[in-house]
Structure formats: structure tokens, C-alpha cells
Write a structure and sequence with these properties.
With 387 residues, this protein is an alpha/beta fold. The chain contains 14 helices and twelve strands. It folds into two domains: 180 residues, Glycogen Phosphorylase B (Rossmann fold); 183 residues, Rossmann fold (3-Layer(aba) Sandwich), CATH 3.40.50. The protein has a six-stranded parallel β-sheet, sandwiched between helices. It has a six-stranded parallel β-sheet with strand order 9-8-7-10-11-12, with helices on both faces. The longest helix is centred in the C-terminal third of the chain and has 18 residues.
């Protein structure tokens, strides 16, 4: 293990996917390595390779849905806590939080970080069950955090618990202002240079048209129902029937059995691209980011778009509304509403100068409160208090 020092304390980071690390945790983990020996416990996924770094990776099976493998994962994690004896054990995502809290009697201060609530979209017994799980996590954890003020209020209200703490103004790891930046010169040229991952039809469009003549909407994230993908496709279908210069680029892994790359791309002016580690090259080409989720954490991709001076269209739900103010740095719409989403698409297309102004306001707010250096520094200073 690189950077391992036997005289230092150890920290466990438990997650249910290496993709989550790539999207949200890499800068935080790197920062924690300066203060402790860090062990990342995560399932293995050949599709998402974590970079060689200063921390140790230990693979145990974890799935998003309940599985018989959960028992094996629980036992494996308990053994790791007993053998390595971490000073702190931090979990992210619900399944990881449950395993972390059920082993809270073993060595290490148990900490959980909420980044969205699964039960927010459930009803009946299923909602009750998942709310019970989250409440159990809170009761058995020494310290509980979440990544936005509105999420803290929601959790406290729905679960009848003390509001979880959030760090700074919110956000898990902030945004790298050097990586995500305003590209005033040639964003299309930069994008075409990675043409191996671009659909040929999209390359053709970008090569023939000026960016100022196009209205490109971008969706970045897990392609699934909870992200509002069905409403987005329908709203864009209605929107594009009267706006021929509009295009929709959907980027992310498909996690919905009712969707496929071919099905998505068969719709007029819609392009699908699988997970990309180079989102900073796509974002400057967008007119706006769209995140019409039913539930969300803070929504890190909103900050990434904002850092590129792009406004976001987001659902009026806890998390995104802590950053996006309607008609100031983006548009806030009602979740699950095709008509509201279509109206937002129409507005961005028909008011490009206003959209540009909102994007600049978003960039200014990011610079003030959400830079990666600031957020990660605040996170590390908070966590190391338990070392």
C-alpha cells in the first residue's frame, strides 16, 4: 500500500460502487490520505477502474438491491474492522451505510454520509422499510452527515431525528475549477478530438454547424427512471418537433430494463453515450444541463456544469434547489412533469442570451462557495476530529 505508515491511524471508506468513487469521492479520499492510512472497501467492477493511488482497495461484493450476498459482505466487513481496527469507518450509499452501522460495535467510529434518500420515491410498505433502514443507520452511527441543507431538513422531518450535519454550503466534494472551466475558444473541436466515443451522426452535426446556431441539452448520470429519463425523452420529443436546432445528449450507464442505447438514439436528435471520464469536454458544448430527477443528492454534475458557465434545469426537490435558484442560475421545475420540462427546454432554446447570463451566475456561485479545494478541506478538517 502506497503511503502506508504504521504509526498513523486508519480510515475505512465503504461504498457500493467504484463508479461512485470516480464521480464523487476521489478528491476527498486523496485528501484524507495525507492524514491517515485509507482503505477503500468497494465491489469490483471491470467497467470502472480506479486510478492507482495512495490508498488500499479491498473488494467485497455489494449490490444496490437486497441480495443473499449481503450476509457475506457483512461478515467480510466485520472481519476487516476487527483485523485492521480503523479509527474511523465512513460509509456512503444506503447498502454501505447499513453494513457499516450493523458492525458499529467493532473497532472504529462509525460515520455515515447521506447523498439522497431512496425512500423519497417509494410508497407504502416499501417506503416504510427503507425509511426504517435510514433511521437505523442514524441511530447506530456515531455521526451522520448529508450533502445539502434541504436534505438535512427532509431527513429530520420525515424520520423524526436530529438534523444531520452538512459541511460548508453543501456538496460532497465540490468541483475542480481547473478541470471544469469556461471554454471560450473551441469546445466543439476539443470534443471531436475524442471522436472514438462520439456517435458518427453527432460528429456530423457538430462539424457542419456553428455552436451558436445549436441548442444542445445534456443529461449526465445514471440512465434510469428515478432520474426522470422517461419524462426527459418525451419532453424533448415534443420540444424538438418545433425546434429543429435542438439536440439532446444523454451520457451515463443505462440501469433501466426498458431502455437501451439503440432505443434512446432512435429518437430524433437524441444521442446516447456511455459513461465518460471526460465530462469536462462535453459540458462546454451544452446550452444547459438537465437533471429532472425524482430524488437526488446535491447533484455534483450541476456544479460541474456551473463551473463551465452552463445553467441547469433541475427538479424542485431537496439537493439541487440548494444551488439552483429559478431564473437566476438555472430553471427549477416540478418533478415528473413533461409539460414543465418541455417549457424549460423551449425557454432555453428561445432565450440564448438569458441562458448564457444564468450560466455566468452559476459559475460565480461555484467560485464563491463550492470549489473542490474548499469543500474537501472542510470535509477533511471535520472528519479528522475523530482520529
Amino acid at each position: 500500500m502506497k503511503n502506508y505508515n504504521p504509526s498513523r491511524n486508519s480510515i475505512f471508506i465503504l461504498v457500493n460502487s467504484p463508479l461512485y468513487v470516480l464521480q464523487h469521492l476521489q478528491p476527498i479520499i486523496e485528501s484524507l490520505c495525507s492524514a491517515a492510512n485509507v482503505y477503500l472497501i468497494s465491489p469490483f467492477d471491470k467497467n470502472y477502474t480506479l486510478p492507482i493511488s495512495k490508498y488500499q482497495i479491498i473488494n467485497i461484493p455489494l449490490t444496490r438491491q437486497p441480495s443473499i450476498l449481503d450476509i457475506s459482505s457483512l461478515v467480510s466487513f466485520l472481519i476487516l474492522r476487527v483485523i485492521i481496527r480503523p479509527k474511523i469507518s465512513i460509509s456512503f450509499t444506503p447498502k454501505a451505510g447499513l453494513i457499516n452501522c450493523l458492525t458499529s460495535f467493532s473497532p472504529g467510529t462509525t460515520v455515515h454520509y447521506f447523498t439522497g434518500q431512496r425512500w423519497a420515491t417509494f410508497k407504502g410498505k416499501k417506503r416504510t422499510f427503507y425509511m426504517f433502514i435510514d433511521k437505523l443507520i442514524i441511530l447506530l452511527s456515531r455521526k451522520v452527515f448529508c450533502d445539502s441543507p434541504s436534505q438535512s431538513r427532509l431527513i429530520a422531518s420525515e424520520l423524526s431525528v436530529v438534523p444531520p450535519h452538512f459541511i460548508g454550503s453543501g456538496s460532497l466534494s465540490g468541483v475542480d475549477l481547473k478541470r471544469f472551466k469556461i471554454n471560450k475558444s473551441s469546445p466543439i473541436t476539443d470534443l471531436i478530438q475524442i471522436s472514438e466515443s462520439l456517435p458518427k451522426k453527432l460528429i456530423s452535426v457538430l462539424s457542419k454547424e456553428k455552436l451558436s446556431d445549436l441548442c444542445i441539452f445534456g443529461f449526465v448520470g445514471r440512465v434510469t427512471k428515478d432520474k426522470g429519463i422517461y419524462e426527459l425523452l418525451e419532453a424533448f420529443r415534443l420540444h424538438s418537433s418545433s425546434h429543429d436546432n435542438s439536440y439532446l445528449v444523454i451520457i451515463g450507464p443505462i440501469e433501466d430494463d426498458g431502455l437501451s442505447a439503440n432505443k434512446i438514439s432512435s429518437q430524433k436528435n437524441v444521442f446516447y453515450i456511455n459513461f465518460s471520464s471526460q465530462i469536462e469536454i462535453y459540458l462546454p458544448c451544452f446550452s444547459a444541463l438537465i437533471l429532472p430527477s425524482y430524488r437526488e443528492g446535491f447533484g455534483s454534475v450541476i456544479l460541474e456544469a456551473a463551473s463551465c458557465a452552463k445553467p441547469s434545469i433541475v427538479s424542485n426537490i431537496p439537493g439541487p434547489v440548494d444551488f439552483v435558484t429559478n431564473n437566476v442560475n438555472g430553471l427549477v421545475i416540478e418533478p415528473r412533469s413533461v409539460s414543465a420540462l418541455k417549457s424549460a427546454l423551449d425557454y432555453i432554446n428561445e432565450n440564448p442570451s438569458t441562458a448564457e447570463s444564468m450560466g455566468l451566475s452559476a459559475r460565480k456561485l461555484v467560485e464563491e462557495s463550492y470549489s473542490q479545494d474548499y469543500v474537501c478541506d472542510e470535509f477533511v478538517k471535520t472528519i479528522i476530529k475523530y482520529l
